[in-house]
Structure formats: C-alpha cells, structure tokens
C-alpha cells in the first residue's frame, strides 16, 4: 500500500475511536523500526520528522529513505512534518513529497495565524497533502521549538472560528499536555476535547504523549483524539538500548556496530508495537 493522506488514516480512527501512533524519527534506523512495527501489528502509522531533523539530514535524503522503506509497505502510512513555523521549509517538504505538515504559528496573533494557515492549507492541497493546525503553545521544548512556560488558551468560540475558516484536517489544542518527559503526572483537560469535537468534529492531535498513562491515553482517544504523538519515548528507547549494549561490549570486549543497531532497532520496534496495542490501532490495517 503506498503512502496515503493523513486524513484517510485519521478518518476511521476518529470515527471508531482508536488512536494512531504518530512517531518522530531521526534517522533511517528509527524510520525502519517504526514502519516494521506497524507492519508487525497491522497498524496504520504516522511517521514524523522535526524541523531539526529535516535541516540536519536534508529533505532529499529523508525522502529517499522514505521511498525505499515504504516501497513494499502493506499498511497505511503518512509522512508528517512536525511543529514547523517556517513557511519556506513547509514548501520545501511539500514539494519533496511530505503528505502532511503541522504549521505551528502559535507565536502569532490568532488572526495572523489563521490567515497564514489558510494559505498553507491551499498550498498543501495543491500537493495532495493535509495540514495540522495549532493556535496554542504546547508546553515544553522539543528539538529546539517551544517553551517551558504555559501559553495562553483560546476560547472555544475562537478555536471553532479558526477550524471553520482554515479547514485544517487535524487540530492540536493545549490539553494540559507537554513535550518531553513529565516530572509529575499531568492533569489533562478531557472535557476540552469533547467540547471541540461536539462543536466541530475534527480529529484531535495529542502532543507530548511520552509518559502518559494507559488510562489517560484511553480517555483522550475515546473523546476524539485520533493522532497521538510520541517523540521522547522513542529517543529514550534508542539511547537506552544503545547504552546498555555498549556497556555489555565493554564487559565482553566484543565491539560490533551491527549488533548495536539490532539492539536499538528491536527496542524501538517493541515500543511502537506496544503503543499500537495501547491506542487500539493494532489490527486495523
């Protein structure tokens, strides 16, 4: 199955109330692990790249990796540009073949954010791509973007007006969630999801999923959160498994990079298969 639009992945998830893992990758090994996990448990998956990763690796290299790794894929997959305030980079990625982008303009006034998002949606449509919108800051710094200070929340009326005007395919409100690992259990605003979905049925994106409890995931998904972002947890699986393997190498005196990569790939794959079962997306492809 070729890469499909993000909206086609999220529409059944939103209707049937399951969540789709949206996982930030950073190299070919992590991309392969996420895709292999999706195949293993027959789950749709959204592969995400941060602005930092695109700039470090380069859009041509990422797209070459993506096309090679998805050539024989049999589950629905989408390639998404996460949290991007740079209109030029959005254009670059859309032209290269990304089929979904998050235009992150929460730093602008709502009016200017809305005006530019309308333009981004029109640009994305010309490429057959979808758009995630955001008008509130998600607390926490991720890959150089964001702030540890909570941002201003907008009223339901302002959010609905933005959704109606822009026609974004998925919406990322502030819900008490945060990027990175939580220092203490967050208090999530489940009712905010329900209110938005009731007024304007659109799939909701939950950012800052790393470290939430299964019960919190289940409640968010039941209320209309169809896209669940995971970034930090994959990095921890990659780094933690690598560190453990290197300590073992130090003890045995045997150093083989291929075995290191295998340990890291296995840890990341196990994480994503577990998430698919937790979110209810396993077996949906």
TrEMBL record:
Residues where Zn(2+) 2 binds: 104, 134
Protein name per the record: Ketose-bisphosphate aldolase
Record-listed Zn(2+) 1 binding positions: 83, 179, 207
Matching SUPFAM superfamilies: Aldolase
Alphabetical GO biological process terms: carbohydrate metabolic process
Keywords tagged on the record: Metal-binding, Zinc
Protein origin, superkingdom: Bacteria
Record: active site: 82
Pfam assignment, any one: F_bP_aldolase
Residues engaged in binding dihydroxyacetone phosphate: 180, 208-210, 229-232
Annotated coiled-coil segments of the chain: none
Co-factor remark: Binds 2 Zn(2+) ions per subunit. One is catalytic and the other provides a structural contribution.
GO molecular function: aldehyde-lyase activity; zinc ion binding
Listed cofactors: Zn(2+)
């Amino acid at each position: 199955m070729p890469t499909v639009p993000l909206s086609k992945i999220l529409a059944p998830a939103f209707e049937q109330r399951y969540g789709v893992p949206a996982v930030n990758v950073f190299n070919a090994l992590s991309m392969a692990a996420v895709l292999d996990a999706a195949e293993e448990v027959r789950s749709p998956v959204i592969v995400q790249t941060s602005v930092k990763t695109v700039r470090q690796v380069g859009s041509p290299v990422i797209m070459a990796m993506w096309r090679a790794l998805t050539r024989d894929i049999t589950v629905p997959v989408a390639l998404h540009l996460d949290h991007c305030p740079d209109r030029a980079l959005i254009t670059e990625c859309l032209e290269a073949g990304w089929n979904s982008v998050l235009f992150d303009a929460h730093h602008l006034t709502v009016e200017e954010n809305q005006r530019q998002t309308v333009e981004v949606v029109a640009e994305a449509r010309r490429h057959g791509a979808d758009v995630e919108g955001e008008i509130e800051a998600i607390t926490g710094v991720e890959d150089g973007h964001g702030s540890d200070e909570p941002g201003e929340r907008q009223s339901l009326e302002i959010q609905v007006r933005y959704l109606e005007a822009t026609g974004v395919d998925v919406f990322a409100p502030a819900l008490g969630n945060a990027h990175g690992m939580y220092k203490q259990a967050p208090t999530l605003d489940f009712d905010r999801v329900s209110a938005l979905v009731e007024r304007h049925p659109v799939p909701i994106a939950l950012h800052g999923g790393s470290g939430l409890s299964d019960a919190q995931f289940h409640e968010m998904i039941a209320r209309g959160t169809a896209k669940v972002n995971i970034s930090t947890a994959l990095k921890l699986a990659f780094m933690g498994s690598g560190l453990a393997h290197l300590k073992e190498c130090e003890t045995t005196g045997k150093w083989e990079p291929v075995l290191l990569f295998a340990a890291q790939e296995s840890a990341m794959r196990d994480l994503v298969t577990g998430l698919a079962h937790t979110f209810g997306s396993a077996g949906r492809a």
